[in-house]
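Customer escalation, tier 2.

The customer says the design service returned an amino acid string that "doesn't look like it belongs to this structure." They asked us to rerun it and document both sides in this ticket. The original structure tokens are below, unchanged.
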């Protein structure tokens, strides 16, 4: 598997108005036994695993438990990355992260929505003091084509990134801050559902939010399955061959209902009215779909 994006906590130092998972100071995290159980249910190989929140540094002991459990399962063959808002980063924490095999730190709060506690200059100083190399997002390699042993980058919810603006999810949806853009097919790009069923494809990324697996970062209305109960590969196998999920796997949510008589023209009209392919996907899964799973997240 190419990539697993794993949200281990919804607890956060901030409570941003645009937060797609409605994170905040009092929200929940996984327990350590759950972390162990979930890692056991990951596939045998994963090229990269990104640990995210919420704010992962707010639950440091859980983060280190997850990193150590992952390392004892995957060792050096996997790249371990974290995503943070930077509020709790300091020299000691960076050193600890490197000691727990993190090779990439993405500070993903550089936008107009966050209320950051530390300036870019201060964050640069912290990273430089531990010889962590700056790479402009989304680069992974330096100018010589090498992957640094430890790197960091900055990014945020800005329209120029591949995200195309804020998703209609969580508080962004409640607060009307999401980007209304029916022509932006988020499903067909990185972080969308494109290729999620294609084991060994460089496009494949599975989003795990706490224990639930999803085909994409915005998360479908219904999770694919629960990693406390089943292996990720079994969960994907259950969805392979299902026309709804095969359509999402092609990055074509407008074709989700074709086999049950819901035309592409109708789906496109609904995407136009709703303002987003992900809201159409929600409507479809709620109203029309008979999926392998009945439980709603
Ligand atoms: S957007 Fe990021 S920093 Fe803001 S509440 Fe959500 S997880 Fe926390
Ligand atoms: S259309 Fe559905 S599957 Fe595709 S990115 Fe949006 S929520 Fe995910």
């Amino acid at each position: 598997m190419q990539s697993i994006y794993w949200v281990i906590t919804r607890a956060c130092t901030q409570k941003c108005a645009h937060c797609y998972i409605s994170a905040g100071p009092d929200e929940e995290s996984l327990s350590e036994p759950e972390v162990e159980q979930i890692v056991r249910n990951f596939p045998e190989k994963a090229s990269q695993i990104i640990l995210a929140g919420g704010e992962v540094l707010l639950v440091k002991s859980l983060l280190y438990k997850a990193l150590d459990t992952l390392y004892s399962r995957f060792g050096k063959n996997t790249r371990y990355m974290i995503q943070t808002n930077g509020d709790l980063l300091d020299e000691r924490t960076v050193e600890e992260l490197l000691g727990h095999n993190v090779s990439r730190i993405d500070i993903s709060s550089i936008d107009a929505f966050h209320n950051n506690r530390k300036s870019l200059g201060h964050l640069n100083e912290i990273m430089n003091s531990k010889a962590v190399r700056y790479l402009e997002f989304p680069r992974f390699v330096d100018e010589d084509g090498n992957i640094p042993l430890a790197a960091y980058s900055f990014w945020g919810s800005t329209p120029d990134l591949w995200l195309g603006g804020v998703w209609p999810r969580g508080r962004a949806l409640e607060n009307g801050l999401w980007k209304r853009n029916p022509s932006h097919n988020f499903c067909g790009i990185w972080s969308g559902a494109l290729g999620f069923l294609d084991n060994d494809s460089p496009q494949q990324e599975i989003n795990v939010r706490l224990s639930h697996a999803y085909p994409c970062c915005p998360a479908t209305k219904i999770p694919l399955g629960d990693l406390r109960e089943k292996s990720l590969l079994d969960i994907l196998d259950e969805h392979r061959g299902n026309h709804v999920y095969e359509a999402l796997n092609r990055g074509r949510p407008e074709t989700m209902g074709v086999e049950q008589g819901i035309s592409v023209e109708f789906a496109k009209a609904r995407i136009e009215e709703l303002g987003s392919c992900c809201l159409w996907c929600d409507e479809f899964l709620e109203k029309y779909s008979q999926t392998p799973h009945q439980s709603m997240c």
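Tier 2 assessment: The sequence is consistent with the input. Strands lie at 3-7, 48-52, 79-84, 102-107, 133-134, 151-154, 205-209, 212-214, 225-226. The first strand starts at residue 3 and ends at 7. Sent an explanation to the customer and offered a walkthrough call.
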